[in-house]
Amino acid sequence: MSMHAIEDMVQGAVEVLDRHFPADDQRVRDWIVALFAFQDGYDCSLTQHRVLDILLRRGHTLRFPVSEHPDYARRRAYFDGIGEFTTLREFGEDEVEFAGELEDGYVDPPWLYCEAGSALWRRMAGPDAVPPRAVRLLDVVVAVAEAAERDGDVELIALWWALGHEALVGGCPLSAEELAATPGVQELRAVVRRTGAHQAKLWYDLRPDDDALDQMDDELSTWWYRID
Fold first, then answer.
1. Could you read off the pLDDT of 164-195 as tens digits, one per residue?
2. Burial label, 33 (beta-carbon count in 10 A; 0-12, 13-18, 19+)
3. Contact in structure between 140 and 146 (CB atoms under 8 Å)
4. What's the predicted TM-score (pTM) here?
5. CA–CA separation, 211 vs 224, rounded Å?
6. How far apart are CA 165 and CA 221, in angstroms?
């Protein structure tokens, strides 16, 4: 699937979750962490700036003046020299990009940003900060699909469902019956059926048609994609 499609899907998912879940629902932060972890599995750009207001409001991202970086005092020249958007990563000393033992996060002057669960976040948020809870991508997608259904956003539902069982469920069961019994699968399938998302026209569509499914001789894919 196009990397732009992945980026747009994640953006749409973050926006729809923010619209439909209360401001104090801590699950949203954990879901957003899972969505960007999913995006990181593809050759995508860093797109957090698209939804930065949401990320800050939901506690996914923390923002500080650059001077509050815990290593600012001993690396002041480096930080003061950052004049544009820069990602901070820890590199080995033998790598060309080595700039000191910098932890994850990014700088968009005059601000320093760190994301929940990251090494820099743990230093900046303090010992009492609650780290993100691990969640299954499928559970996040079900929440996204149900929220998108309330918005009438059939395309967003279709794009996520079109990823297929391997992307959303991971280590798949051995039979269609076991796949159907996997928590979350029937809920997602029900949303797809109610909204007609399996028939929605997509600008970038890798869903196999019936002929392709027959040629695959793949029980799991056939069950997943044949909704009617």
1. 999 999 877 778 899 999 999 999 999 999 99
2. buried
3. no
4. 0.91
5. 15
6. 7
